[in-house]
Request: fold
Amino acid sequence: MQHLNDIPGRELAPGFITKLVHGNQSTLSVVEIKKGSVLPEHHHVHEQITFILKGQLDMMIGGKSYSMTEGTIHVIPSNVPHSAVAATDCTVVDAFSPAREDYK
Reply:
């Protein structure tokens, strides 16, 4: 068992600080994002489920624009290009499967 406060943060991109928990088959990421921060378009083999806990995160997913706000969830399939811009300060939970070996 762990407490989120005991997990060290890691910068994924400027303004994106994540705390990561790894299982054998999945990775959970809790991300604090500063308003105005940009995550450039990228893709990965991992299926990603994004859940907005707080704030507004504007995303491009597979060429479509989504304004994601508190309580919204989006499943991003494997290898689909996506990017994000924080319209406000945000707290986001991302679940990845399989586990993100590149984040360990």
In short: DSSP finds no helices and ten strands in the chain.
